[in-house]
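Entry:
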Amino acid sequence: MTNRLIECVPNFSEGKNTEIIHSITSEVESTQGVTLLNIDPGKATNRTVVTFVGDPESVIEAAFKLIKKASELIDMQKHQGEHPRMGATDVCPLIPISGVSMQETIEYSLKLAEKVGNELNIPVYLYEHSAQKKYRKNLANIREGEYEGIETKLMSKKWHPDYGPKQFKSIKKTGATAIGARDFLIAYNINLNTTSTRRANAIAFDIREKGRIARKDNNLTGEILKDKNGNTLWKPGSLKHVKAIGWFIEEYGITQISMNLTNIKKTPIHIVFDEVCKKANQRGIRVTGSELVGLIPLKSMVDAGKYFLEKQNRSKGVSEKEIIKIAQKTMGLDEIQKFDPNDKIIEYRIQKNNKKLCNLSLTDFLQETASESPAPGGGSISAYIGALGAALATMVANLSSHKRGWDIRWEEFSNLAEKGQQYIIDLENLVDEDTKAFNEIINSFRLDEKTEEEKKIKQLAIQNATLNAINVPLNIMEISLESMKLIKQLVEIGNPNSISDVGVAALCARSAVLGGYLNVIINAKEYHNIDHRNKIIKKAESIKENAIKQESIIFKLTLKGIKNSS
């Protein structure tokens, strides 16, 4: 799974002509490193919303290609639609999903904006977190006057674009574009066991940031309070970054609290669910389930699952699948329609398009290894052995958290199990990374070398690929050695009935380190930077010796524990 992900949701001004829509969205589909998640055309709005995700550089490339194609095929002088718009590509937000900070996303938005302004000659306004001027943060301010008002707007220095031309005559066809980094927005509905829209709205007003109109003595029918200028005062709700309203869904015969969660880092989905449950209960109403509209980042679902596990005093160091299941069942995401994590979680949607060795059955993985292909090889197997060791250790931590009489220690072992899960995830990823590293070396040898310049490029590619093929098994060694600290701790304090399992975990970790070591040494032979190569080998030697020493200590502790227990 890709570790660094940003989402892009460009809106372009064509919702009727399917050929044009297809031509524009094909620019995304043809870009490596991105996954097209959704195309949502609207005839009345004459506007299409596209959603795609991928590594930052690939997303920027795809966004640029989409904006370029839209500027070629859409003539804003002829455009009409119900939705406010100011350009062929009206707006292009970038949203950090995983492994990328908001500040990094802002930098990527600036990179895209500069490229669009300079190379496509389209005026670009930076908005949301990317805004360089406070009054441009709100997209509605930038878009005010729409396409028809751009000519007048450009006459004012206040509304000169951040990038691109300032003269309207050069942009009559394309209009302007807004580009910026924003927070991920979740559309989320919570179901209630009432048909009363008024009561649903009351709960929505209780929790939404805007709240409700303030009244004297907090009486819902009391006199409306106003400030000294005669403006109506509002009493804020209990949750920041939440927009909400109550409505009746005739198809299902229930009311819902329909919400937009505009900052899921500060107000995550599980906090919203619990708060609505609390406010509903105070009004004699029960939450029966909820509905996720669109997609959600993996972290949001994992955070929710861990939150509910912690409330149950249960270990959070269980599999990702189990954690998501807990979140799914607790929030009742299946009540209205089936919730499939593979379709609703962004990272899983991407993973569906990527073949991973660890997604194979045990038999298929064995036979893939046994085939004539040289990969997966010893590096991948070393990583998998290390992951098995971490899995055994994690199992013992979870068993210890549930041991009768040890209830008071559940959190201690839950924390250890979470550490184990991270080792599992890291080593599982390295199973595929080692095979990719091998393939990169093969591909670099296939590069052309007809000219001196091509020869230099080829040799550099070979050396870079070789260094990566050294670093991957070195990483396997480092993580496997690190996991031995957890293994040793569980031999000493874990459930004594499972002590032999932890002993086997130590043997796996040691084998992973030694297997990684062999791969470091054989790949280092082809690396030409002698000083760097010697440093790597020295580091690998140290890890190897340490692992052998730690395994010997753990093995003796294991045997001693087995004898004492008998």
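The mean pLDDT is 92.
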